[in-house]
Specification:
Largest sheet: none
Radius of gyration: 30 Å
Strand content: under 5%
Distance between the termini: 55 Å
Number of strands: 0
Helix content: 40-55%
Structural class: mainly alpha
Oligomer: single chain
Order of helices and strands: HHHH
Shape: flat
Length: 129
């Protein structure tokens, strides 16, 4: 972000914007407690930053096209990134009738039942189905 230190020169500009845009900017800047100058300066800084990022992205893509990564390099990076993952296999699929609620849901239901009647919340219509 461009920082505005005391003593730096400033230039005044006049801009014309659509009335609807102006109304929205005025409402938002009042809510945020910002001056018009601060809002316009911030918008211009963000615009400059977006152009700089787009240029950096363009240079990255051009460099990649000139020297793409080899497939074995990509595989090595992926293998290293996932080397700490444990092995998993899906097993047999469960039928809805075979599944039970997760442990947290079972604990919550036990706690609800154990609470005094005045503290119990009624199950919602959805949970009674």
């Amino acid at each position: 972000m461009i920082r505005h230190a005391e003593g730096l020169p400033f230039t005044k500009i006049a801009v014309t914007v659509p009335t609807e845009t102006y109304a929205v900017v005025e409402r938002l800047r009042r809510q945020l407690g910002k001056s018009r100058s601060a809002v316009v300066a911030l918008a211009l800084e963000e615009w400059i930053r977006s152009i700089d990022l787009a240029e950096a992205d363009r240079r990255y893509v051009e460099g990649y096209l000139r020297t793409p990564e080899a497939v074995d390099e990509i595989g090595a990076v992926a293998a290293q990134a996932t080397s700490h993952w444990y092995r998993w296999s899906p097993g047999e699929p469960l039928r809805a009738a075979d599944s039970s609620p997760p442990p947290a849901a079972r604990r919550a239901e036990r706690a609800r039942r154990a609470a005094p009647p005045s503290k119990r919340s009624k199950p919602s219509k959805r949970s009674r189905r």
